[in-house]
Amino acid sequence: MGEQGTQGSAGAGKNRPMPGPGRIGLLDNLRGLTDPRGILTRLVREHGDPFALQSADGPFVFTGHPEAVRAIFTADPDTFAIPMRDKIAPFFGDTSLILTSGARHKQDRKLLTPPFHGARMRAYGNAIAEIAEGAVAKLPRGKPFSMLHTTLGISLEVILRLVFGVESGERRARFRDAAVRLMEATASPIIVLFQVTRRELGGFGPWARFRRASQALDALLYEELGRRRASPEPREDILSLMMSARYDDGSAMTDNELRDQLHLLLFAGHDTTATALAWAFYWLERQPEERVRALAEIDALGPHPEPDALTSLPYLDAICQETLRIHPVAAEVARLLQKPLEIMGYTVPAGTTLSTSILLLHDREELYPQPRRFRPQRFLERKFSPFEHIPFGGGARRCIGAAFALYEMKIVLATLLRSHRFRLVKNAEVRCVRRGLTMGPRGGIPMILE
Prior knowledge:
450 residues; CATH 1.10.630.10; 6-stranded mixed β-sheet; 3-stranded antiparallel β-sheet; 19 helices; 11% strand; disordered N terminus
């Protein structure tokens, strides 16, 4: 993208309207659903970065400029509210962390963060490796399989065992089936993006299917919460830690609040980590020299490396960071302004949704030369600021599961790379497409286990 966007430099336009296309047509809106990177890149080329436009959901400002990202992520959190809250609430629940703001968000974040960091997180390393090996053991040798389907299975098992803490094989199978049905029902962009399509239609159609799947999983979740409360022995899974956590006034989360947080963890932790893992395996086969270098680093730890040793490997970390840069699972991070904010010399009025485009930021030539090239080495050559590399968002609303996601990603990659050999069915480019709430590889990345 080079040096585009210079017309939005600081101090240049405070007393004039921000440039932009006004309203974009139906065709561009549809292109934004299927190819957000392409349409955003074109609009920045034509209007600069940042740029403004009007949509059916109100005024928007889009940016992938580090200076604008800094202004947004360092602003007082009370500057913002949740954009399009009613549109996304059915998928996460009204009290989930992603939909709260102000004091409520701050206290919930304080309560929910500890299980995803430090020693508590690292206690899960061996279990993650075991889950990954178990999933690959079920794959057919020498026959095509979907890498995305496999990593989705690994990520879901991690959530069920380590987050939800479902120990019984039979109960875990029931949870697994319910979670898969819900995720499949949510994969339709139609009900995610267009509220007008959310009609029961006599029990038929995508919205009715989503409602049934959500209710079925909720029944299992509430049943599990009741079982835990009836037999409160100490446990180390994340749900148990959440149930035992207390706010400053000594109160605990209600069952409805726990339900909402578990829905968020399922959506945020399942699809996102799995998609990043699938892309990593894809690139390590497209560029086998990167796989050889990663394996040499892993093998240097000996035959039985500890999880902490694996997750400390610099090149393995660079591979994960580059995968998340080139293929962020979310296209943007949005904030709704409650009061005016200065961004690169422009005064953006209250009521505007600020869309920080991860795609635009991660494609900037001056930050990432040859941005569409997979090159992990760039993360060893320099350190990127939290306003230049933002796969998990940033500021006061940065994803609380970021450390856990990276930890899981590194354990799974290292475990499977050192013990198995995968190859692509076709060594060809795979397109990134929208998959409901997230983005992922078209076709699931067919591979063969040799």
